[in-house]
Each structure stands twice: as C-alpha cells, then as structure tokens.
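fyi for ur records
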Amino acid sequence: VPITSAQAREPMGMAKRDHIRTVLEMPAVRKAWQSAKGQPGTDSDVDRMYEQFLPLQKSVLSSHCQLIPGALDTFNWCNDQQIQVGGTTGYTRELMEVVRPLAAKQGYNPVVSLAAEDAPQGRPAPWMIFEIAKQFRVFPMSQLVKVDDTTVGIEAGLNAGCWTVAVTKSGNEVGLSEAEIAELSSEERKQRIAAAEAKFQKHGAHFIIESVAEMPAVVAEINQRLADGKRP
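which gave:
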C-alpha cells in the first residue's frame, strides 16, 4: 500500500510502532489498505510491519547521522554554560546503538539519551521528559527547554510543562536535506518554512526557530522571562 512522504512524516517523533499504526489509521491509507487487502488493518498487521521495519531502519541509519550545521556549536555552548543536554527519541535502544557512537564521534554526546523503551509511553506523552528531569534533578519544569522538529515532540514538552522550541528549516516539517533546500528558489524556501511555522504555532510552541544554531538567543530570552516571573 503506497503512502506519500507527507503521510510518513506526519506522526514523526512517535515510538516507531505507534508511528506505523498512526499511518495505517489515516483515512486515505485505511481506505487504500481495505482496497488492497480486502479488510481493515489490524494490530497483527502493525506488528508484522514493525518487525520488518526495524532491520530496514537499522540498515540505513549509519548513512544519515551527520550533525546539522550549528548543532555541535550549540551543544558545546550548552556545556560551556553548564546547561545539561538530554535526548529523547522514538527510536528503539537497538537503533540508537547505531546512532549514538556516530554522533559521539562528531562531538555530540548528551548526558542522557532515552529511547522508546525507556518510558511507559512515547511522545506526545511527557514521560521521557520527566525521566530526564529526574536524572538531571531539575525542578520546576520551567527550568527545562524541549527542542523538537516534530509536532508530537512539541506536544510532549507542553504536556510536561516546560518551554518548547520548534525547529523548522532543518527539521521534519520542512523535510528536506541541506542540499535539497539549497536547490529551492528563495520563494519556495520561504513558503515551506512559513508552512512549518504555522503548523508549530497551531500546536502552541513557545518559540520557533529555523535551526538549533539559534538556541543561545532563545535561552537568553527564556532566562529573561523567568527573571520577570513568567512561566511556560
């Protein structure tokens, strides 16, 4: 049953089994599945696709672990400012065994990195953020900032009660590589980024940036808001 790139990206950020089930439940996909298979998709179908998906995902991950421009500078800035960095993902621990060492070789090695199995429920539930707060011994939740390029990641941050920062240009909602973005006309690029911004605004993100390279300025603004007595 063919699906579009947009349909595949829509639930991005969820635990991967939930991601597959959510795609299967989309009205257009559900209709196409019914037509192709003669019956609605079932949990058994989700399980089967998930089991087939994991080794495929693992086989290509190593080719897609290059840090985006500005990410390492921001990570190093956080370390200089004694800001602890933790990561959450919809990937499994097995998949992260591929990603983590490749990211570490490039200099990105967060204090805590949680996978889908490390919480009772994946995003948009807040449990992984709460677990990071616990491990960092940070409270109240207004002392945490959730940065994400997916709507469910922003929802998780809002559900956890922390500041949320949505990433557009270099993230899932624009959905293009650096080379693909460079090939767009200036107008096309603006339109894609504006569409991503509108979507994140609708989901309630506190801040919207094009790249994590902009995070130092966002943190300064958050610190000022906290000093003024404001909370997420």
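The chain has a mean pLDDT of 95. thats all i got for now
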